[in-house]
Amino acid sequence: MTIHYLESAADPRVSDYTQLTDVHLRKLREPAEGMYIAESSRVLRRALAAGHRPRSFFLAEKWLADLQDVLTAYPDVPAFIGSAALLEEITGFHLHRGAMAAMHRPAPVPLQDLLAAARRVVVLEDIVDHTNVGAIFRSAAALDIDAVLISPRCGDPLYRRSVRVSMGTVFQVPWARLESWPQDISVLKQNGFTVAALELTGDAVDVDRLAASNPDRLALVLGTEGAGMSPETLAAVDLAVKIPMRAGVDSLNVAAASAVAFWELRPRSSQGPH
């Protein structure tokens, strides 16, 4: 193991962990530097299990025994140890979830590779709240979504809050950032996908009606918080679908709505249940 005990918050070796509470800065910095932060022992273990490579580990000494097997498995990766107060001074918040790791970002997956064998795909259009992004990934992992596509302005799935809320399931579901949206809807259609927008419009069909048709390949588009789907996207999709709700309630949080829709629209075997 390569363990380094920290004595100063200004130690340049832990620059990956500085200013973690500055969302704007970290959103720009982490993709540019090819890294992300895995926060908590459970999440960093899931990142490693997914084949992601660590740059360094960062933890209080009391968590050293808990992470002993990981540090032993990566003897050349530095582990930085410090007091709780010093770690908080570096990161900007109290580190109470065991340990952190700075991880190398995996190489992007080509869009065609994601679509090749997928039956159910979700597209996140400009969803900027990282809690929502993480929650959607968690539902996607649990409910038969094969891939997640995100628009150019969508929040980063590997931002630490997204990763934490997803409980590390962002490492399980293949995803890619689209380069041209909504123009890339045509790519989905060319690959045989029915493209449906989850949006309350005058001609939206109930989600269970679309589920009954059991499309072989379906791409479900979720719109941004507040403003919802862009007019350009609504004009390009094949249809709009809605979740029927009681009178007086016209919408759900996008993460909650995604879970309902993923369950209802999961692919059914043509032979029916066994």
Mean pLDDT: 92
Principal-axis shape equals elongated
Q: Largest beta sheet: what is the strand line-up?
A: 8-7-6-11-9-12-10
User: What is the H/E order?
Assistant: EHEHEHEHEHEHEHEHEEHEHEH
Structural class by SSE content: alpha/beta
Query: What is the end-to-end distance?
Result: 51 Å
Contiguous runs where pLDDT drops below 50 for at least 5 residues: none
Question: Into which percentage range does the β-strand content fall?
Answer: 15-25%
Specify the number of helices.
11
Helix content: 25-40%
- Total strand segments: 12
Largest sheet: 7 strands, parallel
Task: State Rg.
Answer: 21 Å
How are the elements arranged and paired?
Blueprint: E1 2-5, H1 23-33, E2 35-39, H2 41-49, E3 54-60, H3 68-73, E4 78-82, H4 84-91, E5 99-104, H5 111-115, E6 120-124, H6 130-142, E7 147-150, H7 160-165, E8 175-177, H8 185-190, E9 194-198, E10 205-206, H9 207-213, E11 218-222, H10 231-236, E12 239-242, H11 254-264
Parallel strand pairs: 1-4, 3-4, 6-7, 6-11, 7-8, 9-11, 9-12, 10-12
Antiparallel strand pairs: 2-5, 3-5
Structure, described:
The protein is elongated. Strand 7, helix 7 and strand 8 form a beta-alpha-beta unit. It is built from eleven helices and twelve strands. Helix 6 packs parallel to helix 11. It has a seven-stranded parallel sheet with strand order 8-7-6-11-9-12-10. It has a five-stranded mixed sheet with strand order 1-4-3-5-2. It is of the alpha/beta class. The longest helix has 13 residues.
